[in-house]
Amino acid sequence: MRVAVVGATGMVGNVMLEVLEERNFPISELIPVASERSVGKEIHYKGTPYKIVSLSDAVSMQPDIALFSAGGDTSLEWAPKFAEAGTTVIDNSSAWRMDPDKKLVVPEINAKALTKNDKIIANPNCSTIQLVLALAPLHDKYKMKRVVVSTYQSVSGTGVKAVQQLENEINGVEGEMAYPYPIGKNALPHCDVFLENGYTKEEMKLAREPQKILDDRTFSVTATAVRIPTAGGHSEAVNVQFENDFNLEDIRTILSQTEGIVVQDNTDTNTYPMPIYAHGKDDVFVGRIRRDETQPNTLNMWVVADNLRKGAATNAIQIAEYLNSNELV
Predict the structure, then answer these.
(1) How far, in Å, CA of 127 to CA of 261, rounded?
(2) Strand 284-291 to 261-263 pairing
């Protein structure tokens, strides 16, 4: 398998390389791709140096798969060029997610919809992935009506400049600001840009992407996305109203039997998910499972995942693994 990693020097690109190595993905040739200023520099993979190439050179090399994590503008311009060359693109940006002709995939949920004809495949938003992985099995059993989600998102979701801003503030160093305000000792109800309806793009991704992934528009999602001063890992307070009533133990059993989910839910021992313990892991952690006592058939839960792994790199590579194992590339 000839694999290009587009955005190989970025935060998610680095994690993609780590996950490819950890999962021993079958690579016959690695093609690291980055911006023009990085072309010719070297990265190391499995102890071997590889020279970074340009996007145009990478297209001409016709890789089997291209893992994209270089921003929406780059994806819009270059993903079709790779696809025309016969490469299957798995794109981590928001560029193709809501395109009706492109699949939006969380492998545990809807990978079976993929075919050889899908040459550009969208990786969902990091917050969406962990949310929908927890919701999908419950929706199958109890039928969701409405979801209210409040996120607590780490600065790594913004990028390296935001991580540096937080580190600078912790160390009392003046530097470039990724946010309009300090993030240390603060919480910003502002993830991505504001839209005309008063929501941010991040909040609207959470509203729309689950419906597409589950191929169901009979339920609705409303979100408030908040940036907090954690270095990695996104957390979500999730309130779900179902059409049918449920038993809490059944909820725990369903979730614990779901691939990719780990239930951490014991208030007697203060056992609940936290981003500090999700760091470096590929699972989605669910806890604080309890009934909403203010209205019928409604559940509260707390969902945590490493946003750079399952929320980005790992999900993309799981898609690649599915394509490879099912001979779709």
Answers:
(1) 15
(2) parallel
Is 234 a residue of the active site?
yes
Split into its structural domains, the chain has a count of 2
Assess whether 182 and 137 both reside in one domain.
yes
What tokens does 37 get? Answer: 């200023």
96 and 238 co-located in one domain: no
Q: How far apart are CA 259 and CA 280, in angstroms?
A: 18
Q: Look up tokens 């929501």; give the residue.
A: 199
What type of residue is 179? Answer: Y
Query: Do 60 and 8 share a structural domain?
Result: yes
Asked if residue 307 lies in contact with residue 233, where contact means CB atoms within 8 angstroms, the answer is: yes
- Give the bridge partners for 53, in sequence order: 33
Q: What element of type H or E holds 146?
A: strand 144-153
* Assigned token pair, 235: 């957390």
Whether residue 126 lies in the annotated active site: yes
Give yes or no: residues 263 and 165 share one domain: yes
3-state secondary structure of 198: coil
Catalytic residue of the set 44, 190, 234, 279? 234
Q: Which amino acid is at 239?
A: N
Q: Are residues 83 and 198 in the same domain?
A: no
pLDDT truncated to tens, each residue of the chain (329 aa)? 999 999 999 999 999 999 999 999 999 999 999 999 999 999 999 999 999 999 999 999 999 999 999 999 999 999 999 999 999 999 999 999 999 999 999 999 999 999 999 999 999 999 999 999 999 999 999 999 999 999 999 999 999 999 999 999 999 999 999 999 999 999 999 999 999 999 999 999 999 999 999 999 999 999 999 999 999 999 999 999 999 999 999 999 999 999 999 999 999 999 999 999 999 999 999 999 999 999 999 999 999 999 999 999 999 999 999 999 999 99
- Distances 86 to 73, 83, 120, 253 between C-alpha atoms, Å: 21, 5, 10, 43
Q: What are phi and psi of 42, to 5 degrees?
A: -115, 145
Six-digit token string for 231 = 């270095």
